[in-house]
Amino acid sequence: MKKNFRIYLFLIVSIGGYMTAQTQTYELSFRITDEQTAQGIENAQISITPCSCGGITDENGNLALELPENTYTITVSNIGYKRYRQRIVLNRHVLLEIALSEQEQQLSEVVVKAKKVNDNIESPQMGVVQLKAPELKKLPMALGEFDVLRSMTLVAGVNNAGDVSNGLSVRGGSLDQNLLLYEYAPIFNPTHLFGLISVFTPEAVSNVDLYRANIPSRYGGRIASVLDVKVKNPYVNKFKLSGGLGLLSSRLSVETPLVKDKLMLYAGVRGGFTDFLLPIFSERLKNTKARFADGTVKLIYLPTEDDQVSFTGFYSKDFYQLDLISQIENVSSETNQYDFGILNGTLRWTHSFNESANLKTVLLGSDYTPKIIFPEIESNNEIEFESAINYISLISEFSKQVNDNWDYYIGVQANRYKISPGSLDPGTAADITPVTLSDETSYELSGYANLNWKPIPSLSLSGGLRYNHFTLVGPYTLATFDDIDGSITNREVFGKGDAVKTYTGLEPRLGVSFALDENTSLKASYARVNQYLQNIYNSTTPLPTSRWKVSDANIKPQTGDTYGLGIYQNLSDNSIELGLEGYYRDTKNVLTYKPGADFFLEEFVEQDIVQGKGQAYGVELSFRKPTGNVNGWFNYTWSRSLLRSVNERVADRINNNNWFASDFDRPHVFNGTINFEKDKYNTVSFNFTAQTGRPFTAPNATVDVDGITVPIFLERNNARLPLYHRLDFSWNVHFSKSKKNKRWQNDWTFTIYNVYGRRNPINTYYTQRIDFAENSEIFRSSPLGAYEIALLNSPLISLTYNFKFQ
Q1: Does the first or last residue of the chain, that is N or C, have fewer Cβ atoms within 10 Å of its Cβ?
Q2: 3-class DSSP state for residue 792?
Q3: Which residue intervals define the domain TonB-dependent receptor-like beta-barrel in the entry (predicted)?
Q4: What is the mean pLDDT of residues 232-253?
């Protein structure tokens, strides 16, 4: 009996031990990154067999699972990347670090899409477009290469002022109401070639985030939108060369390791010399000259497994000459020469405490130096007008992913602005007085926090708060103005470091998403932002003669409150995305110019501007088909952008204090893009855009003064330019890697900008008629003749050869 009991006990212990061994579990962790940028890939799909399990990576590219000991096959996939497969034996805790490479010959897909198939349904963020490197390269080419700003104009609610516009207008906002960042550093002039292309070095761009609604609390200083452009991390273990040769520009980029697995380098340059092309497209450009260059350098250093240090440098240079006649005091010039320069630097250190928590510290500087040159007639002397913006910022931010349902970040930011409003150097001209306006120095200290929380599966919340403390300091001269006639009654002089004016402000941000079902959601959002820096100009696109100005006692900071509401639905297994989004933005202390304002070398620019109210509202309808041999997206926007002065003095009133259309009011806008993919070697794309013409001011009457007909303007923006519309064509021919040389690949890109040669005017001007018989069938007996200015009246053709070697 005892023998049988011992045998029975032995069997129980043996079976129990066997069962324990069989059910032993281990942690299988993943870190999925982009091979080129080393950035974590969010929402990468991980499938594991034979357990038929897996998951989706978080925003840092991480996923952790508990699995029994066994042999598994791991498959990792994500749109735009090659599929990765690996077989492992799980008999201990394992961390798999997998770098996905770009899918070289994948058919192009629509890029304005969510980060995962249903992110547009679940995310509480409204009005956001997030594009990564593989997606950016599939955008319809405008002039032979992908362009960040041109691509953004395909998004609902985003426009420019025409073919030559120095920036973006987002949901009816002015150009200076958008914060444009390139690797954390602000860009104050984002375009080359009068606004045709952006300054961002194409191959350097890693991803682009555009925020139009509840702007995250880590951003501040602009009331309309944030465009955040990041530079790729050169996480490479071998030399790579890429570039392109084109009619409008050529570019070259290299990526290489300097110290294996420790120090890596990216360097990219681009240049354009288009003087010989301009007369082809317009006779009035025969004396116009234009050339530009930009370059981006990034070094990344990995001292430990938990630390990453990077430095990014950016340089941009523009020079162009316009055949115009301008007068400054006693000097006339037959040509105006414009010279822009940008020099930025960003130093970033990121320390990871673990897979879910990290601390990021950024030190950056930005220098913007616009200049305008007036060559004197019959003289070698040049009169130069210069201004500058110097910006320094320090950012420190801690972020943590607590679990799948909530994460947060908290940070501080300190900024310093130093603005040189302008100086005039007459050179050898003895009859011109040199002028130098006093510098403006200000400091801004901000603290911010943001929380993303998903209390129940159908509800997602995003809440943030930002606090700003802004101070303008001396040396500074503050003017006091008479309430009746606006004349200067007093000048108060502040010494160096003295506080001139201080503003503080709280900026709440909120986003809510409620899922009606797995394919439909409702979203609402709110954001308040204060703007302490503004660009003052009296044209639709700023020139070097425009004025950058910080807030002081006379010019209050702009404040914008933006509300949003939308419904979103995915159809046909997420292959079709529909969205309907409405917004309303109420703006206070918005700036506009007085009639006849001239900001050139004005000591007290407050005398030429007024502050009032603004409102922008609209509805955006979007349709997207991301995949298939025929794919594309369409969007239609109905919107209004209005301004109003609220001044008692008649001389300070604009439009007699009635609402009027802003320069960026476009009631109707339609954008459509369609891609035809016959095979993996050919992609043909068409892009069509149409929008209501830009407002402009037409004279209400005329008066004769000493034989000269003088127009009288009583209303602001009381007329519109003709309907703007344009069709663009792009054909990309991709050559696969040859069997003889698998390290070399190339393609050709042929583009036609403005296919049918539409003459879209950018402005209208009036002149006195001398010969009334000339154009009498148009102007009849009017003493004034109205003439439209259009930069392009023919197609703009470009052919670019692109190559890559590794």
Answers
A1: N
A2: coil
A3: 313-755
A4: 88
Can the peptide bond before residue 434 be classed as cis, meaning omega within 30 degrees of 0?
A: no
Beta bridge partners of 714: none
Cα(469)–Cα(447) distance, integer angstroms = 9
Is pLDDT larger for residue 287 or for residue 470?
A: 470
Average pLDDT over residues 477-498: 89
User: Which amino acid is present at 724?
Assistant: Y
Residue 20 has pLDDT above 60, yes or no: no
CA 411 to CA 448: how far, in whole Å?
5
CB distance 527 to 214 below 8 Å: yes
Query: Per DSSP, what are the bridge partners of residue 339?
Result: 319, 371
Whether 696 shows a pLDDT value over 50: the answer reads yes
CB under 8 Å to 780, separation ≥6 — which residues? none
Burial of 430 (0-12, 13-18, 19+ CB in 10 A): exposed
- CB count within 10 Å of CB 695 equals 21
Using only C-alpha atoms, the chain has a radius of gyration, in whole angstroms, of 30
Q: Of 729, 793, 787, 726, which is closest to residue 141 (Cα–Cα)?
A: 729
pLDDT at 10: 46
Q: What is the DSSP string of 634-675?
A: EEEEEEEEEEEE--SSGGG-SGGG--EE-TT--SEEEEEEEE
| Residue-level pLDDT at 140 | 57
Q: Can you tell me the distance from the alpha carbon of 160 to that of 170, in angstroms, rounded to the nearest whole number? A: 8
On whether the CB atoms of residues 662 and 176 are closer than 8 A, the answer is no
**Phi, psi dihedral angles at 328 (to 5 degrees):** -125, 115
